[in-house]
Amino acid sequence: MPGEEYLLGFDVGTLGSKGLLINREGTVAAEYYVEHNVNIIRPGWVEHDPITCYWRDFIEIVQVLLKISRIDPRDIRCIGTSGLTPGLLAIDRDLKPIRPCIIYMDRRAQNECTWVKEHIGEEEIFRVGGNTIDPYFAGYKILWYLRNEPGNYNRTWKILNPNGCITSRLTGEAGIDHWTASQFSPLYDYRKGKWSECMCQELGIDPDKLPELYDSEDIVGEVTREAARDTGLAKGTPVVATGYDGVQSLFSVGALNDGESAFMYGTTGCWMIVQDEPRFDHRFINASNPSAGKYVILGGMATTGALVRWFRDQFGHLEMNMGRSIGVSPYEILDLEAEKVPPGSCGLVTLPYFMGERTPIWDPAAKGMIFGLTLSHTRAHVYRALLESTGYGLKHHMDIAKSVGIRFSRMIAVNGGAKSRLWRQIVSDITGSPQEYVSMAPGAPFADAYVAGMGVGVFKSLSDIKGFIEVDEIVMPDPRHYSLYSKLYEIYLKLYKTREKRLKNFI
Known about the structure:
Nucleotidyltransferase, domain 5, 2 domains
């Protein structure tokens, strides 16, 4: 509509990117999604090509959004971006990536983590960074980078998160928001809300290579003439810092108050709980933004949607071909097949540790398992068992949270996988917890666009996002299924312990 103001939100994920345009009323004018791949260099080494996966995705999505919405680029008031977190994206002074981006899934910094434990200690690391020691966090990836690629490290101007690729190329500036910076543990002091000079010195990391810190709604810069030419956006359009995709997904469904939570059905499964004070536990991922007075506790499973896509790509060729021919998602067809399988998948239990595991076990060497297979099981049984593993993993986190006094109340399902009614029902049946669902919520890109609006005064506060959110479905757990799943959950817990014990004996 001519003369109307719009806001652009963009999120780069592990297996794809999504962008959208909203107006002042929070109405989505256009949205678009593209897939991309991860590069598994070898077991535990996972990277993205930042130009292909980040910048080209952004250009394609922006151009499609402008085409289908017919919006004048000059009517876009501000841009917000978020991305998979944390990652190590090293750029030179010309804003060019020096090497592929090492993403959160990557486990190569295990030796560096061992060194930090021995020379600094877990207690001091937790005191400063608020998180445990694990290759997941960007600080240990940077230490690996320093030790193993000193030539590249010395050429590095700034080390960014993946969405920083977009912000820097749009504006020529290098910045990071506080939420994302807290995942660069142990380099970020979560109490002081700034980079820790002490930790940088202990690890030998140059603090000047870390980007400037911003609040999410702060304007980092404006779209340059060159970026405008490449993207079709208007020169001078403001760009805000925005940031952590998990936190943005949480805010996108209006979960803002102490104890409110959301479960993100993404490539990874993230259970995120808002807290008014840092009730941190080392078994969780802990994110902070001191200036906002908010903290988020995350249960982060390495593979949820990644397992579903793995199954589709390896065993779902029939569904992919059928989906293309009739114009539906192959996941919808797989769901229809899995619905015919009884709860519990006739005794199958899956350990979803197909890329090691983050919370709550923090075991880079953990392996996946499909336990209980017989000749009577079909592909549909296996697919349903993969969906059920998400529920078992979430219940594991919920039990730990309750045991240490982490308060949580309502839970909202968010992101692409949440579109599956079957998946949501399975998770509620296993955990015994209701799930609210907001069908219109496009996840992180919506919050990105909203926060962009805050940056230019279109919206006054984050709490006003609740006015755009309407829960239109609540999934209630089935007590009969919960009873069955509780027995299988005990097997789930024992499988990891038994496997690890036998593996150690074998070694």
